Amino acid sequence: MTAISNLESDRLYLDSDGKPLADNTEQFRWIVIIKENLEILFAAFDDVFIAGDLLWYPVQSRLIAPTAPDIMVVFGRPKGRRGSYKQWQEANILPQVVFEILSPSNNADEMNRKLEFYETYGVEEYYVYNPDNFQLEGWLRQNGHLNRIWQMNGWVSPRLGIRFETGEGEMKIYHPDGQRFLTSIELSQRATQAELRLEQESQRAEQMAQYLRSLGVDPDNLPLQ
Questions:
Q1: Which of 7, 28, 59, 177 reaches 20 to 30 Å from 154, CA-CA?
Q2: DSSP at 190
Q3: Residue 223 DSSP SS3
């Protein structure tokens, strides 16, 4: 019997489950918001890998079906392109934090299977958000098991340092510095506003310099305050 090479073996593990990333606009919006803000949060850390809708194979076995968390965060693995997350190729480091964003197609049996999967394969923090009714649920690994977090309003993720607020309607998430997770449009608007402020400050500085020159004062030789 001919042995199967590592490359041939890897081809047995598909990079897609054939399912769409999201079922509706709200689910997709929240997947993007959380993933992109986490990318920003950990942009300076080369060993934090973040992905959306990426198949995770926890063990090298065709008998164990993979799952694709809506967002996964892996501490201890480099950023970069991947077709799927094969744990045996990743120093056997598992995703420590996962998020699921619910859609109407998700049923209780499916979500129970996901919880069991994450329980079995060592996830430390698991969060489920339903954008239709604004309900956020969370689980934290303690004593080897994922235990329900009963108070999510004001909860701070031990791994990520982000804070969840669920007291008034739609969930809000805050960076460790208190800045709210923003959409791509809000981020673009904030960058534009910052550029505008810098331009206005530069114009004011140039106007002041011109005024001083009109008085015969060289602004470049003014004593530092």
A1: 28
A2: H
A3: coil
**Residue 84 near residue 55, CB atoms below 8 Å:** yes
| Pairing verdict, β 125-130 and 135-142 | antiparallel
- Give the chain's count of helices (H) and strands (E): 4, 10
> Residue 75 corresponds to which tokens in the numbers above?
């501490």
CA 130 to chain centre: 17
Task: Name beta bridge partners: 86.
Answer: 57
Instruction: Give the CA distances from residue 215 to residues 202, 218, 220, in Å, rounded to whole numbers and listed in that order.
Output: 20, 9, 14
Class of residue 15 by CB neighbours under 10 A (exposed 0-12, middle 13-18, buried 19+): middle
pTM, two decimal places? 0.79
Helix H or strand E encompassing 29: helix 25-41
CA 146 to chain centre: 20
From the list 164, 186, 187, 192, the residue with the least C-alpha distance to 176 is: 164
Q: What is the tens place of the pLDDT at every residue in 145-159?
A: 999 999 999 999 999
